[in-house]
Amino acid sequence: MLQLSTIKFLQQLEKNNNRAWFEDNRKKYEDAKADFLMMVEKLIPSIAAFDPTIADQQAKNCTFRINRDVRFSKNKSPYKNNMAAYFNRAGKKGNGAGYYVHVEPGKSFIAAGIWMPEPADLAKIRQEIDYNLGEWKEILNLPAFKKIFSSGMDVSNILARPPKGYTEDNPALAFLKLKSFVVRSPVVDDTVIDKGFVKNVAKVLQASHPLVAFLNRAID
User: Fold this and answer.
1) Global pTM?
2) Residue pair 129/172 in contact by the 8 Å Cβ criterion
3) Nearest-CA neighbor of 117 among 174, 180, 161, 160?
């Protein structure tokens, strides 16, 4: 669980996203950061219980800086309005699929999979789905998976035409057109500060483990 003060800090930051306010409230930020890191530290062994590849990760290597990169963005707000962590076998910058936790008042969610993989990895994933479509569909239709990720695969990044090497009549085409392979589950604000938050996050991510394992096997 997170402290209510951490959520309140993020709410205040959204309304006062400027360097002057941030510096005046740096102590609140440091406390919120420490609170989030503590939650991540508790979450790592909970994830490792079903995915041992995460066991050696450290909280500091799974969390992201609050500073935004504004160089190529129209939004020049200097700070993110969220705190997030990514659990990957090789750390947050590692290759392959993993698990993501995003805490932002009114917009929190839990996700898993791989976002916009490199062309070589994308080709491997598509080939694995093409060769093992039955197994892929079984994963997406597992009762726990369907219940938690009821919206299915994120289709916000998709090709208009079949990728090179595949035809329109390929039975896996709907999946082969995807540029990312991600599922997500929304989180209600009140649950973030609930004592069972870490346990609930782990339960959601465990349901996504067959998907993550399939994707990483494809890349390997």
Assistant:
1) 0.95
2) yes
3) 180
